[in-house]
Specification:
By secondary structure, this protein is of the alpha+beta class. Helix content is about 45%, strand content about 20%.
Length: about 425
């Protein structure tokens, strides 16, 4: 295999990759052996048709596509290893020569890692965060704990906002019952807005045993196109009304939900934990602001293909998370009315920001001589091993040398972010008028 690299504008390049004729011939023969059992020509038993006969009947290039598809991935990977440039996008492949007896030649248009010219990155000014914990914040946390430990009690009165109404319902559009519009013994929290339009509000004031006709209109962007924008009638039977009862805020409550015997001790613990959280949040905010300032002062020409590759990776990652939850991307798009293209467009600003942050932090690490040590690596491996419930040596074995290199780079980038944060100057926020 031979490689030629032609650099283009805006950090793009074209790799011309040439595979020797004998390798292309071997790939054609492999394609023939793989597919000959599927081809039948009169006068020959299935799977016994000579390659020459197939090529005469269907054309000399009959096996070219399969041969090319088998050659391109390995040839491109070898080209990446040989190429001295850092490639940061998926390739756009174009076959330029494909003919038996000649070298197989294709090109790969790729983005190259852009150079970064740093501006001011040490001592940048960032807003100082307020980490004071107020009594109101402690009260809010306590009330949330009361909510978490509340219980639902059946009551003999009309439905009020915040109650749970246990209902049977059936929906009709144009006088016909529609699919998915029926339910029994459904617990509906009034005010949750989990049902469309003013459905929940129309149950307020009704009692258990009442039959109610609820009139609503489906949203224009509703996932079911047959119902989108249409008026509908729901016949609802209220079977039970429940109200939320909160526990008293006293020492008994504190002893039940915490390790403390008194409410005062519990409040102090909540205040301490809220303070620690605010400190952590402030630390992250300071780091984010310092990185933002470094990005603003830097110069870099990021190729579109690099951003597009990051966008695709982000959507692919989201699709994998959906699969872990038992849903695929197509179904998600149907429910939300989105398309893959609209999702790609929506993540574009975040994709660009990720790239800018990574490039600037790598440049800072290089400028300041920031690297990860073997001790840093071992600590990270131990953390991963604990997370995956695996032996540390097994984690190392799975990741290999390329994985180790990536982790060392990631750790250096993390240290560079710490460096920017630690060297940033906090200033009081200007008061809003």
């Amino acid at each position: 295999m031979s490689l030629q690299v032609e650099k283009k504008e805006k950090n793009m390049a074209v790799l011309t990759i040439e595979v020797p004729a004998e390798e292309f011939e071997a790939a054609i023969e492999k394609a023939y052996q793989k597919n000959k059992g599927k081809i039948q020509i009169p006068g020959f038993r299935k799977g016994k048709v000579p390659r020459r006969m197939i090529e005469q009947m269907y054309g000399k290039g009959f096996f070219y596509e399969d041969a090319a598809n088998s050659l391109i991935p390995d040839a491109y990977e070898k080209a990446l290893e040989e190429c001295e440039e850092t490639i940061v996008s998926s390739p756009k492949i174009d076959v330029t020569q494909i003919e038996a007896g000649k070298p197989f030649i294709f090109t790969a248009e790729v983005a190259l890692k852009p150079e970064v010219t740093l501006g001011t990155y040490k001592g940048v000014e960032v807003p100082k965060a307020d980490v004071t914990v107020t009594d109101e914040e402690v009260d809010a946390d306590l009330n949330q704990q009361r909510e978490n430990n509340s219980r639902m009690v059946t009551v003999d009165r009309a439905v009020e906002d915040g109650d749970v109404a246990v209902i049977d319902y059936e929906g009709f559009a144009d006088g016909e019952a529609f699919e998915g519009g029926k339910g029994e013994n459904y617990s509906l929290t009034i005010g949750s807005h989990s049902f469309i339009d003013t459905f929940e509000e129309q149950l307020i004031g009704k009692k258990a045993g009442d039959d109610v006709e609820v009139n609503v209109t489906f949203p224009e962007q509703y996932h079911s196109k047959e119902l989108a924008g249409k008026p509908a009638l729901f016949k609802v039977s209220i079977k039970e009304v429940k109200e939320k009862q909160l526990p008293e805020l006293d020492d008994e409550f504190a002893s039940e939900v915490s390790d403390f015997e008194t409410l005062a001790e519990y409040r102090e613990d909540i205040k301490k934990k809220l303070g620690e959280k605010k400190e952590d949040d402030a630390k992250r905010a300071k780091e984010d602001a310092a990185v933002e300032a470094a990005i603003a002062g830097a110069q870099m020409d990021i190729p579109d293909a690099m951003v597009e590759t990051q966008q695709r990776q982000m959507v692919d990652d989201f699709a994998q998370r959906l699969q872990m939850q038992g849903m695929n991307l197509d179904l998600y798009c149907q429910y939300t009315g989105q398309t893959v293209d609209s999702m790609l467009e929506s993540v574009k600003p975040q994709a660009l920001k990720r790239i800018q942050s990574r490039l600037v932090l790598e440049a800072v690490a290089a400028a300041e001589g920031i690297t990860a040590s073997e001790e840093d690596f071992e600590q990270e491996i131990n953390r991963m091993a604990e997370s995956y419930k695996m032996e540390a040596d097994k984690v190392k074995e799975i990741m290999g040398e390329n994985g180790k290199k990536q982790i060392m780079e990631d750790l250096a980038v993390s240290k560079a972010a710490d460096f920017l944060r630690d060297n940033a100057v906090e200033v009081e926020k200007a008061e809003e008028k």
